[in-house]
Specification:
Layout: H1 3-59, E1 66-67, E2 77-82, E3 87-93, E4 103-110, E5 115-123, H2 132-135, H3 137-140, H4 166-186
Antiparallel strand pairs: 1-2, 2-3, 3-4, 4-5
């Protein structure tokens, strides 16, 4: 056998060992990730529901919330709940109109069709700018009492946009408008 043939066989067996080792490591990692997902999935869902229920209490306090069957055409409406005789709580996905592509809000709508409160459930907006929509309760208080179509002042509305975060402000305003329309359809 020539030296080239021996070297070639040595490289092939080394490459095979490397490939099998890498495959085994990947399989172990995949199994561990699957196990962690299986063990934490229920707790994550439980925590998300607790956060959602907490937001519902903040936007429209009630002793009972029952799922409302929203059948409208607004695809941004994620869920709707009747808050006894006080009104509705509407969850809205504002991702399409946000800066980051991650923004969902919970809006309380009184029985008279006015906003009782707004909470940001999930936000990927820029820290210090768009994240103020979630972090600044004073900014969200501007929506309380509003009805009909809600817009930022730059668009002729009454909501003062967050400085440097007009897109996020518009996204939340559009979400509130969607929630008001959904509540009107439900009521």
């Amino acid at each position: 056998m020539s030296e080239a043939t021996v070297a070639k066989k040595g490289n092939n067996s080394g490459m095979l060992k490397l490939t099998l080792t890498l495959g085994a490591i990947c399989a172990v990692c995949a199994l561990l990730l699957g196990l962690v997902d299986m063990l934490t999935r229920d707790k994550i869902a439980e925590n998300a529901m607790a956060a959602k229920m907490g937001a519902m209490q903040l936007v429209l306090a009630s002793d009972e919330y029952s799922p409302a069957n929203y059948t409208g055409s607004d695809e941004t409406i994620l869920s709707a709940y009747k808050a006894g005789d006080k009104g509705y709580v509407i969850e809205v996905d504002c991702a399409a109109s946000s800066f980051s592509g991650t923004l969902s809000i919970m809006v309380g709508v009184n029985a008279d069709g006015t906003v009782s409160g707004v909470e940001v459930l999930d936000s990927g907006e820029t820290s210090g700018l768009g994240a103020k929509a979630k972090d600044d309760p004073e900014w969200r208080k501007q929506f309380v009492g509003k009805s009909g179509s809600v817009a930022v002042d730059k668009d002729g509305g009454e909501i003062a946009a967050i400085t440097g975060a007009t897109i996020t402000s518009r996204g939340v305003s559009m979400g509130v408008t969607s929630a008001l329309a959904a509540a009107a359809e439900l009521g």
